[in-house]
UniProtKB/TrEMBL annotation, chain A:
InterPro entries: Fe-transptr_FeoA-like, FeoA, FeoA_core_dom, Transcriptional_repressor_C. This is Fe2+ transport system protein FeoA. Keywords: Iron. SMART domains: FeoA. One of its GO terms (molecular function) is transition metal ion binding.
Automatic annotation (TrEMBL), chain B:
Belongs to the TRAFAC class TrmE-Era-EngA-EngB-Septin-like GTPase superfamily. FeoB GTPase (TC 9.A.8) family. This is Ferrous iron transport protein B. It comes from Longicatena caecimuris. The keyword Transferase does not apply. It is a multi-pass membrane protein. The keyword rRNA-binding does not apply. GTP 2 binds at residues 35-39. Keywords: Cell inner membrane, Cell membrane, GTP-binding, Ion transport, Iron, Iron transport, Magnesium, Membrane, Metal-binding, Nucleotide-binding, Transmembrane, Transmembrane helix, Transport. One of its GO terms (cellular component) is plasma membrane. Signal peptide: none annotated.
Length: 80, 671
């Protein structure tokens, strides 16, 4: 199932399909390793509901939901 | 003996500072990179004294978007270091190598220090260092900076490589369409790159990526630019992706192949597992925020109470004894009375009262560096981001603002940890609105005289006014001065680590040095000036009664400005002026100028100066108006510009004036 990263619930994950957005944000996402075909997993949502905590390429990253919405993900079942 | 310049580069949170400390020991000095407030630390390498190691900012990439990245790029390209030491976190090797690949494009000889190798092995994983080194054609030294392992090996490799003086071997890791684009563009721009002093391949790669600073730097003809765009366009069409994604993808694909070949990773690293367990509490949905508040309260309690406060008391006593001894000595030497007064009442009182804050500041920074080095600070940003974002700031600004309730000086100094220049400046402007602890004596004095039955209510409302003004200011600044785009909040949550004692101590020592330098320069001079103004009249005669001094005259003149706020008495305005040296002086000045020695005497004297309404307006003014000289100096230093620092304090004082005016005028109508 295709969706955007911000819609994925903690514990779930998938494969990045495309990274939208522009300028500094998009570049930063790509630099941090959020490139197409990368496995990514949502591990947590911050206490106030935003940002989200992600696991990819062996490390932990946080992104705001609004920025995560730019990333298209093909959801896979259990990724742990 | 010629100096050898060596650059230390790497990601954030990869142990770079620890390695820097290991390599240089304690002989470091700190400066700024030209034109930006990015800290530049330098030091001689142990056993290789002719080499100067420059600690470049922690970055993830060489894109042109943050000042840290631009500084790194410019330093390597323009200062031509003999060698880059690239520190790579072995537990997070994929993302760390992404920067390594970009650094390799700069054509400067490089050595990789593969840090945290001990943790890789402990987690049951392994890295074939020799194979990796062969692939990258770069010497790689496995180390553990925190355990001090492999450092001597690293130093001998650095020595050997730095003395070779040869150009780096060029590694061609690009493939297919990207390869074709880079090489065709390299051909077009070769001459321009040489003139502009850039490695051709690096310049070509940057043009493929659409890097604007590079386009400008090369001064290309329009024809060439058109051809380049055409080449990039056909690459994009062939790959079905855009230029930026194509290059990021190319680098990461190459890294994935490398990792597949050289790294055995069967288990998640232990550090990561441990961190996830700790975070179950620290970033917990319901407990995360309460735990954070609890931690901050404890730090404040310890800083201003048992540890910092006690030490401050001891230091104050020590200073008193020293000043007393000096005073006796001067009397015995029969120096003239004005010189005695200058040294004792002017310099010693002024510098001494500020100096006594040293223990509090050092203690506060002890805790802060624990929070920062352990990795908790990133979690604070994660937990608080949503609230701060409404103000145009990010989660990272929360900590400096909290420290502001203790003291604006370390608060402003700690904004250095913020990655965005815009956030940093905005935080510096609003932080002093958080009522600092030095203002407490003023609140105590006023409430005792006017509102003895409502002390708590008055205190709370004063703090709230400060917070409210900070929030409104942030909203205002976001829409005016700091409109621009904020740096995206894409933050790594590093694995928790036990901070190294050496790093923490060095950090405290740095802050202490900074503070002492300030106390003996700016505050020293300011104390002399204030003393001079309050001890002489305009005919430069020494006055016994300060009400005839220049300061009193200036105070009277200034009091006209304050008349609409309800404190037209010259003593009130003079106290506000001396309060600029240190907020505690507001109290001491008022007690000197009213000739009172007891608190009760001061209370009744104050009742002749203020009405309850004007007293409250006075409180409002004190919370908000420009911070003390020490904080001003910190503001100037961190903003990197006197003009901006003056604009900041002008804004703060303007806001204070307006708020106090409104409070007094409306209050006078109501009461």
């Amino acid at each position: 199932m295709m969706t955007t990263l911000d819609k994925i619930r903690p514990g779930m994950g998938g494969i990045i399909q495309s990274v939208g957005g522009q300028g500094a944000l998009r570049r930063r996402l790509l630099d941090m390793g959020l490139t197409p075909k990368t496995k990514i997993q949502v591990t947590k949502i911050a206490p106030m509901g935003d940002p989200m905590e992600l696991y990819l390429r062996g490390y932990v990253l946080t992104l705001r939901l609004q920025d995560a919405a730019e990333i298209e993900v093909l959801v896979e079942e259990e990724m742990l | 003996m010629s100096e050898v310049l060596i650059a230390l580069a790497g990601n954030q949170n990869c142990g770079k500072t620890t390695l820097f400390n290991r390599l240089t020991g304690s002989n470091q000095h700190v400066g700024n990179f030209p034109g930006v407030t990015v800290e530049k630390k330098m030091g001689a390498i142990k056993n290789f004294k002719e080499a100067t190691l420059v600690d470049l900012p922690g970055i993830y990439s060489l894109s042109p978007y943050t000042s840290e990245e631009v500084v790194t790029r410019d330093f390597i390209l323009k200062d031509h270091p003999a060698l880059i030491v690239n520190i790579v976190d072995a537990t997070n090797i994929e993302r760390n190598l992404y920067l390594s690949l970009q650094l390799m494009e700069l054509k400067t000889p490089m050595v990789i220090a593969l840090n945290m190798m001990d943790e890789v092995t402990a987690s049951g994983n392994s890295i074939d260092v020799e194979k990796l080194s062969k692939h990258l054609q770069i010497p790689i030294v496995p180390i553990s900076a925190s355990k001090n392992e492999g450092i001597n090996d690293l130093i001998s490799v650095i020595k050997k490589e730095a003395r070779k003086h040869q150009e780096a071997i060029h590694l061609d890791f690009c493939k297919g369409e990207v390869h074709r684009a880079i090489h065709s563009i390299a051909h077009i721009i070769e001459d321009h790159a040489q003139i502009a002093d850039y490695p051709t391949r690096f310049a070509a790669t940057k043009l493929v990526e659409g890097d604007e600073p590079m386009q400008r730097a090369l001064h290309l003809h329009q024809d060439d630019l058109d051809i380049i765009e055409k080449i990039v366009k056909s690459m994009e069409d062939a790959l079905g992706t855009d230029r930026e994604a194509a290059l990021a993808d190319m680098r990461y694909s190459y890294i994935e192949e490398l990792v597949k070949d050289c790294v055995v990773k069967n288990h998640r690293s232990q550090g990561l597992k441990r961190s996830q367990r700790i975070d179950r509490l620290l970033t917990h949905k319901y407990l995360g925020i309460p735990v954070f508040i609890l931690i901050m309260l404890m730090i404040f309690y310890l800083t201003f109470g048992p540890i910092g406060g006690t030490l401050q008391g001891l230091l104050e006593e020590g200073i008193d004894i020293a000043v007393h001894a000096l005073s006796t000595l001067l009397l015995q030497l029969h120096v003239s009375s004005w010189l005695h007064a200058l040294v004792i009442d002017g310099i010693c009182n002024g510098v001494g009262s500020v100096l006594s804050f040293l223990p509090v500041i050092v203690t506060l920074f002890f805790f802060l560096s624990l929070l920062e080095d352990s990795g908790y600070m990133a979690r604070v940003a994660f937990v608080m981001d949503k609230a701060l974002r409404k103000l145009g700031l990010s989660g990272r600004s929360f900590v400096p603002m909290l420290i502001g309730f203790g003291c604006s000086v370390p608060a402003i100094m700690s904004t250095r940890a913020l990655s965005s220049d815009r956030d940093r400046k905005m935080t510096i402007v609003v932080t002093p609105f958080m009522s600092c602890s030095a203002k407490l004596p003023i609140y105590g004095m006023i409430t005792a005289a006017f509102f003895p039955e409502h002390t708590a209510l008055i205190l709370i409302s004063v703090y709230l006014i400060g917070i409210l003004v900070a929030i409104l200011s942030a909203l205002l600044l976001k829409r005016t001065v700091f409109q621009g785009e904020s740096v995206p909040f894409v933050l790594e949550l590093p694995a928790y680590r036990i901070p190294s004692a050496k790093s923490v101590i060095l950090h405290m020592w740095e802050k202490a040095k900074d503070f002492l330098r300030k106390a003996f320069t700016i505050i020293f001079v300011a104390s002399i000036i204030i003393w001079f103004l309050q001890s002489f009249d305009f005919a430069f005669n020494f006055v016994e009664d300060s009400s005839t001094s220049m300061l009193a005259n200036i105070g009277t003149w200034i009091s006209h400005i304050f008349a609409p706020l309800g404190f037209e008495d010259w003593r009130a305005s003079t106290a506000l002026v001396t309060g600029i040296t240190a907020k505690e002086s507001v109290v001491s000045t008022l007690s000197v100028l009213t000739n009172t020695t007891s608190d009760a005497g001061l209370s009744s004297a104050l009742q002749t100066i203020f009405s309850p309404v004007s007293a409250f307006a006075f409180l409002c003014f004190t919370v908000l108006y420009m911070p003390c000289v020490a904080a001003f100096a910190a503001t100037k230093r961190e903003l990197g510009s006197m003009r901006q620092a003056l604009a900041t304090v002008a804004y703060q004082t303007g806001v204070a004036y307006v708020v106090a005016l409104v409070v007094y005028q409306i209050g006078s109508m109501l009461f």
